[in-house]
Request: fold
Amino acid sequence: MVKKELTEAEIADCIPDVWQALTEAQRERLAQHFVVQKFKKNETIYCEGETPRHLMCLLSGKVKIYKDGVGGRSQIIRVIKHKGYFAYRAYFAQENFITAAAAFEPCTICLIPMDLIEELLRENVSLAMFFIRQLSVDLGVSDERTVNLTQKHIRGRLAESLLFLKETYGVEEDQCTLSIYLSREDLANLSNMTTSNAIRTLSNFASEKLIIIDGRKIKLIDEEKLKKISKIG
Reply:
């Protein structure tokens, strides 16, 4: 895990929404405590049960938020977008982390002490409104995924996950290959199903010419059909 300090201009580029909401004096305070860390592939970023101490923002790479369930089976709760904020809800709730976070691939994350963020929130209404909006968006996404993962059948859940990954991370230059290469286990954990079910359903989608599978690469060939499968559940 490598730590690096940035200039104010670099910080402004990393967290433009937060930076723009601050006064000059507040920016100086934040810059004094702003740190960037690099994490290796599969490295744990924080663990369930730990005390939250930093607001985190994903600058590059991909991160999963997950929770270990019964029998050691993991459930991926959500994935973090580029320049997405995370790891702060538990602090505001005055509780320890109820989830864990890990790097899907090598990633760079900025960290800002939560006690400083709390001070700034008390001083700055614009910043407080920004985080209220962030929490509201995250809650909406969580509510929708809860319904999708509990009410849809296996085909609907997997189709929804593939579309969710495209919306979150986009596609490569060919406009159809997902820009994230998940293991079958991670895809199953994202879709609330067993790995064997994920493998079988992916194979069915491929035989139906909805996707093309090349190792961990997945090309979405018939996105409209996938949307229909996801919608009908």
Summary: The two ends are 41 Å apart (CA to CA). The first strand starts at residue 2 and ends at 4. The longest helix spans residues 125-151. DSSP finds ten helices and eleven strands in the chain.
